[in-house]
Amino acid sequence: LADTYFLFSGLIGRSWAMVFASGGFKVKLYDIEQQQLKSALENIRKQMKEMEESGSLKGPLSAEQQLALISVCTDLKAAVEGATFIQECTPENLELKKKIFGQLDLIVGDNVILSSSTSCLLPSKLFTGLKHVKQCIVSHPVNPPYFVPLVEIVPHPETDPSTTERTYALMKKIGQSPVKLNREIEGFVLNRLQYAVISEAWRLVGEGVISPTDLDLVMSDGLGMRYAFIGPLETMHLNAEG
């Protein structure tokens, strides 16, 4: 089994680790803080055991089998060894992310994919100037990735098409729902759609058209029920007589 490797063990890193372990992949969690790694493993174990008991654990493996696939590391070089896919999960700080990818750029080979979990930083800002830029991509999950399958795959202008295809195939293999953006755009797609709805929600409430409680009901008991399984374009296509 190929190794997958996650930079930093916060909420997103832990959730990603659980998703990949559920798909049978070896996972290394890297962090500079040993205590952070220890608490991450404890948290993952607790969540997996609870889900196993409730019958909601993902994948064919038991919780113990999945936990056995996850190891931790505080040494970057040792962590990267054997990895074929690296998912960066540091806070949304451009300089921090650029520093991390700069370090990775010096130690990875030509086959590993360097992927970022960023929700808003453009690939051109993250990866430009790296010698392994063709292997770089954004894989933006929806929090928490373990329960929400969508992953936005956003290439840098110089990302090799094979990097995109390999990332897409990997996400499908672990049970996520990847979508490919043909080019980068501010906010990607999920947040652009979300912000359009939020903007109109503020306007309708602000102008006194509807109360905040009723506005939320329009989504939760109306549009949201439809959009939970069918998108806006398919809705228009199938409306009324289809």
Unreliable stretches (pLDDT < 50, length at least 5) are none
Q: Please report the total strand number as a whole number.
A: 8
CATH superfamily of the largest domain: NAD(P)-binding Rossmann-like Domain
Order of helical and strand elements: EHEHHEHEHEHEEHEHHH
What's the alpha carbon Rg, rounded to whole Å?
A: 20 Å
Average pLDDT level: 94
Helix % is 40-55%
- Please state how the strands of the largest beta sheet are arranged side by side: 3-2-1-4-5-6-7-8
Major sheet: 8 strands, mixed
Number of helices: 10
Strand content: 15-25%
Distance between the termini: 46 Å
CATH level 3 topology of the largest domain: Rossmann fold
Q: In terms of structural class, how would the helical and strand content be classed?
A: alpha/beta
CATH class of the largest domain: Alpha Beta
The total number of structural domains is 2
Can you tell me the overall shape?
Answer: globular
- CATH-scheme architecture of the largest domain: 3-Layer(aba) Sandwich
What is the topology?
Layout: E1 3-7, H1 11-22, E2 26-30, H2 34-54, H3 63-68, E3 70-73, H4 76-80, E4 83-88, H5 94-107, E5 113-116, H6 123-127, E6 136-141, E7 150-155, H7 161-173, E8 177-180, H8 190-206, H9 212-227, H10 232-238
Parallel strand pairs: 1-2, 1-4, 2-3, 4-5, 5-6, 7-8
Antiparallel strand pairs: 6-7
Helix pairs in contact: 1-2
Domain 3-hydroxyacyl-CoA dehydrogenase C-terminal: 187-240
GO molecular function, one term: L-gulonate 3-dehydrogenase activity
Family: Belongs to the 3-hydroxyacyl-CoA dehydrogenase family.
